[in-house]
Fold this protein.
Amino acid sequence: MLNLSLVVGDSWGAGVMGHNLVPTMASLTDIRMLAKVQPGHPMEKYCPPEFSPEVPYASDDPMLHLATGGVSFMPVNPNAWSWKRNVGWVYTEYPEQAKRNVPHVDRYYQHLVAGSTWCREKLEEIGLHPTVAIQGVDTDVFAPKEGEGPKNDGKFYIFSGGKAEHRKGTDIVIAAYKILSQKYPDMHLIAAWGNLWLEIMNSLCASKHIRYIPTMGATWKDRIQANLTINGISSDRYTLVDMVPNWKMPQIYRQAHIGLFPNRGEAGNNMPMCEAMACGIPIVATNGTGHSDVVLEDHAICIGGPTVENGWVEPELEEVVDAVEQAYKLGSIDRAIMGRKGMEFIKANLTWERCAKDLLAVCEA
């Protein structure tokens, strides 16, 4: 029996990860899921009825904990623990700040698993010794589909996804797209930037590329629209995608000619980027931090940049613009070839079964 102390959801990263991992792990071993779900939820059958996040829960069986994001290393449910073996699955993009919380690791876990090779390397630099398990993609859902693709309306569609924030390079996309949209009237941005945490969006104030006013608009969408306007991008040149269940995202990815991901720092492999690749969308992306496990010159147009604090990549705006132009000028056949190579890479290397087996091996060690 394996206990899974995770979260589940259908429209945000950690929740989507839990939604995919739980049934995959259940196909490999007996599990208990230590999370609260609504009655009738498909995952309810895995949840022990006596479990409550507010009440201490101990088990004689090993337990996999999702460690909370950021720098704390705290388990998502600190009231749950195993007398036998506790494994923390860690995603931190801020290793220098996380160093002060290393004592939490010995307090809560017997072993750590990092979400990417880069994350493992950064944790090793602060004295920890994790293994690696990389999230998968459901390629039955995320795949090309005959009859679905960019509209035949003469426009060139660029997809950008991930919650709006400085770390994910939202400001770089805005600045690059402003330049590109003025040069190429047929370009159109599809932005899936939904962010439930407006305070994280305020990190865009640190940008050297755009003007960002954090008080404009009460919702993430209003705020993005207002700031796109003050940065000189008119509303007819972009589409803001509402937050939708994850299973609806393939229809959005397939509308794009390319995906643009100039992310500065990723502790994992960047779920939206990998899902877009699985749909056959060629990508322009940084090949540093967690992207390094996925973004290879064989199937992507790679963006570099100097290494800055925490080991992040700082893309040069001119290089981003040049890379998008390169994709734009490739032609539909060459873009299709690149997209197919990326799709084949995801299908061969990033499965949820592989992820579950890597985690199970560590939990049962």
